[in-house]
Amino acid sequence: MAQFQVVKGAKDIFPEEIVRWHYIEGVIRSVTALYGFSEIRTPVFEYTELFQRGIGSTTDIVGKEMFSFLPDPNGRSITLRPEMTAGVMRAFLQKYPGGGVPAHKLYYVADLFRKERPQAGRQRQFTQFGAELLGVSSPAAVAEVISMMMQVFDSLGLQGLKLRVNSLGDLDDRARYRDMLRAYLEPFRDKLDEPSLERFDKNPLRILDSKNPAVQEIVAGAPKLLDCIRSEGRAEFDRVLGYLADRNIAYEVDHLLVRGLDYYGHTAFEVVSSELGAQDALGGGGRYDALSKELGGNVEIPAVGFAVGMERLIIAMEKQGLFAALTPHGPQVFVVLQDSSLEDQALRISDRLRHAGVSVESDLAGRSMKAQMREANRLMAGFALFVGQDEVASGNYTLRNLKTSEQFSLSLDAIPGVLHESSKQ
RNA sequence: GUGAUUGUAGCUCAGCUGGUUAGAGCGCCAGGUUGUGGCCCUGGAGGUCGGGGGUUCGAGUCCCCUCAUUCACCCCA
User: Both A303 and A393 in a single domain?
Assistant: First the structure.
């Protein structure tokens, strides 16, 4: 047992797995480019107040899940970012105090930190891919953002995802609905569970997405949030749905969908996968027009965005066998030494081949030829190049194709050409 | 924060109601082939049985504590 192990809720990613990340990130880069989104990177920490103001101090994230610390005794508290949206908005407002041009399209792949108990699909350090469209939040903009997210899933080959959408209306709509919901739930008070009762006073909307079957039954008959939304909000939501239908994006309106972060308003959405276990949300997002003012901006910057959990994406893809094609490939050539006295010769040859663009590996542990061949095989090298007394003396080296077991005797200069030919087949 | 679960070799795990030197498969190393891999055969290295305490003539096995893991709740990606 090792003395040290990774910090609880964190994870090491070794080369076998990193190829998956590279693959997914590649798809993300190409799809976001199709929609005109560019990458943004912001610091991993921000002043704590940014999240308190942005996400909302009553949310669980801010209330009990932040990694906060004082960089120096009299300094301001700093927090490892638990989400990206507040930081992106802060960066934007800092660079464009006047709001900039109407549509800024930004995406990110970033590490986030939340002090929760780890479980399947949940870590304390995790990664989200997300996008923020700043300056416009029209129905077309909302549809565009959802569309981009779905295209990423589609390009990765994911099947069976469910897109759920709902409208949270504006602040007035929600206030009116809150009263209605309380009035409806009042008679059921004695049947609600502990957490629901707590939410009854603090944030009754959250009772809607309870996992407790007993609560779900009660909630099923509750008035619908959508019915409380006044005509403009309703029309806007209908236009979003119209755009989605137009683009053949399957969705279902989920009246119980309420997002956990304070800054969301109007359209909110979520994508779930049945491959994920209890934590089944692959991604989610919505409109957050109110955030810019909340953070002290001079002007309101309408905005829409989403975030997708990369680790959850990988779990879902793994379950669907979508990484099968990602076979690692070994070096083109593995240099095999007859004995260690030829080491400097071998190094010279490796160097020459590498400068000719050939990937080369060799045994660095001074082992037997048999062990070297096994190593070449394990690494899945294409060829073995034998370096022995005869080769060094004659200048002609034995090159063995490890797939076909054919061997040739070649001069060093001829080798890159032969490898180039064989890689074309 | 709450509940449950698991913790034996590098990895995956076995170890019956407590009983002598703790096992298997895979992996690793070496040899069979003193210039040649993948298959096969032979041998070898490698374990404070998570840690501490207790019960017992005797504990991997029972009890307590502790640490870690995993899953679920809460909440979220």
Answer: no
